[in-house]
Design brief:
The chain is of the alpha+beta class. 33% of the residues lie in helices and 21% in strands. A 5-stranded antiparallel β-sheet has the order 1-2-3-4-5. Strand 3 and strand 4 form a beta hairpin. The N and C termini lie far apart (56 Å). 30% of the residues are buried.
Length: 208
Amino acid sequence: MLKSIRHHGLILAVFAAATTGLAATVYTITKSTIDNQALIQQQKLFDQIISPNLYDNNLTKECYLVSKNEALGSSLPHHLYIARKAGKPIAAIIESIAPDGYSGAIKLLVAADFHGKVLGVRVTEHHETPGLGDKIDIRISNWINHFSGKKIDLEHSSHWAVKKDGGDFDQFTGATITPRAVINATKRTAMFIQSVPQKLPTYPTCSN
């Protein structure tokens, strides 16, 4: 009986080792493919919010981390990508968060130049109510595209609100909290991006 138990235990141990080895091999083989696909999808998202004609560097290769900044909606590290033309920084893409969405935090990707002009915005994650607040999602409506080309500075700041609050942006029928949260987060983020060129030397790179 004891011999049989040992025999079955040995078989299970060998099987477990073989399974672990196979999983490790598959992971090693597929990791580079998965990483490449992730970079491709990331670049496609970048292309939606900043024209490839505006820059000539590899955005994914110039990544920095920004932490503990209220303008970005949380104290967590946010990825910042610098767009350059002939070596000169001309714009940035940065992760941001609208913490005051109707159903929780709304994650954003905001692209803007360093003079307050928003180039594009995309919502990357949200939990807003289907049929109401989910209109911030480009797959549902084109509302998010209305940020493109808008300028933010002291002169134009009053325009950055839903029409109900006297601003330029449409609210959603039955859902004003969601667009208001996204507008305010985009406004804060675009204003923050204007300070990036001066602060850039202080940010650690994403590889650090």
